[in-house]
Amino acid sequence: MWAGILEDAGRHTLLCAQALALATAIGAPLAAFAAARTHLRALLLALAAVGRTLPSIAVLTLLIPLLGVGTAPALVALVLLALPPIVINVDLAIRGVAPAARDAALGLGMSGGQCFRRVVVPLALPVALAGVRTASVEVIASATLATFIGAGGLGDDIVRALQTDNLALLLAASATVAAMAFAAELLFARTARAIEVHTS
Amino acid sequence: MSYLLAHPARVGALALAHAALVTGALAAACAIALPLGVLAARNARGSVVLLGALGAIYTIPSLALLALLVAACGLGSLPIFVALVAYAQFVLVRNIAAGIRSIDPAERDAAVAMGMTPRDVLMRVEFPLAMPVIVGGVRIAAVAMIALATLGGYVGAGGLGSLIFTGLALHHTDEIVAGSIASATLAVLVDVTLRGVERALRYGVSR
User: Fold this and answer.
1) Distance between CA atoms of B115 and B120, rounded to whole angstroms?
2) Contact criterion met (CB < 8 Å) for A54 and B147
3) Which end of chain A is more exposed for a tag (fewer CB within 10 A), N or C?
4) Model ipTM value
């Protein structure tokens, strides 16, 4: 039993890590770019708000007619689900940087790019990371539902355990996926604390 | 879209059942969260432990929790009801405690000095002043619960999730689309309404 769970946990982790990395790579620059542009920012935040109201199972299943079933559509769905919290927090983080800090950097003669890289990004990082942390918990939970569109992972074990009334498998698979979510939370909390200590 | 247009009565009935499930769970969740939130606002160390435990529940992936609840209490609406109540606790208790803590101590002192009993202070000063933050928590919880309740379709609890899961089993994309749109619309409506309540309360409090 555990060998199968371990294999599925590996697939689960890989899928989540890929989705999180892609969503961060897309969402963070997008939100940073939009933060200073009124209309684009309003549009992006409105999209993020709507994205949050969509049930995960809806996002996963709605992609079937477009992309079919399997790992690839699940990855796309998970990226879509991870984007709202990342976009919202990166926006919050960048707007939370004290204007005085920015002014001081520019006053010291930094170029716009230098100011962004060396002042805005380090100061915004902890709050931005909190968004990735929220997204990670959501992605791990939603990846469990990806079993319904044939993407494998620990959801497979949970659904199989329910169908075959296998309590041992149910407990083991549920505990494993819950432990993964806790581990992700802990990892990001630790990282955020390390960054805060480093920058302050 | 065609399913939604062809069967508005059926989608409407499922949306109503969905709303009833979420409303019931939200009411139960608030009844549990209110005393816990007051407790967390009064006791700093207890609040860390309580919110840590509730946050842990919040972190458990929904399918895992739901599956365990099905094992414990069978199929139907009971497991999803319990899951919704459990998930809502973290947001509700956090906001109730934060709302009460954010009150200016001078307001509380004034109430005590006027001879109010602790009960009066809570009911007539603290709750009204904390209400905008509490309603903010209720709004976040309600929107999350509407989305989560679609999983009820998998355990036979009815609601809009049954459209999604039936559509998934029969490869009827139309039904999936109908269930998703209806559920998202319900969530947006609740979000907008409670935002309005929040704003009205804030205005009332600051006046």
Assistant:
1) 9
2) yes
3) C
4) 0.84
> Rounded distance, CA A2 to CA B48, Å?
34
Please tell me if residue B166 touches chain A, with a CB cutoff of 8 Å.
Answer: no
Q: Where are the domains of chain B?
A: 2-206
Q: How far is CA A23 from CA A29, A81, A153, B116, B169, in A?
A: 10, 9, 19, 53, 29
Q: To which CATH superfamily is domain B2-206 assigned?
A: MetI-like (1.10.3720.10)
Q: CA A161 → CA A84, A99, A169, A174, B112, distances in Å?
A: 32, 55, 6, 10, 57
Query: How many other C-beta atoms lie within 10 A of the C-beta of residue A109?
Result: 8
Class of domain A2-199: mainly alpha
Distance between first and last Cα of chain B: 46
**Residue B84 to residue A101: CA distance in whole angstroms:** 43
Cβ distance A53 to B168 less than 8 Å, yes or no, reads no
Q: Chain B contacts of A58, Cβ < 8 Å?
A: 147, 150, 164, 176, 179-180, 183-184
Q: Is B167 on the interface with A (CB under 8 A)?
A: yes
Contact A55 B177 (CB under 8 A): no
Domains of chain A, by residue range, sit at 2-199
Are residues B147 and A177, on separate chains, in Cβ contact within 8 Å? Answer: no
Q: Which residues of A touch B59 (CB under 8 A)?
A: 137, 178, 181-182, 185
Which amino acid is present at B72? A
The helix or strand, by DSSP H or E, that contains position B27, with its residue range, turns out to be helix B8-42
Q: What does the pLDDT profile of chain A (200 residues) look like in tens digits?
A: 888 899 999 999 999 999 999 999 999 999 999 998 999 999 999 999 888 888 899 899 888 888 888 899 999 999 999 999 999 999 999 999 999 999 999 999 999 899 999 999 999 998 899 999 999 999 999 999 999 988 889 999 999 998 898 999 999 999 999 999 999 989 998 988 888 777 66
CA dist., res. A87 & res. B90, Å (int): 23
Query: Quick check: B62 contacting A, CB < 8 Å?
Result: yes
CB contact under 8 A, A62 and B183: no
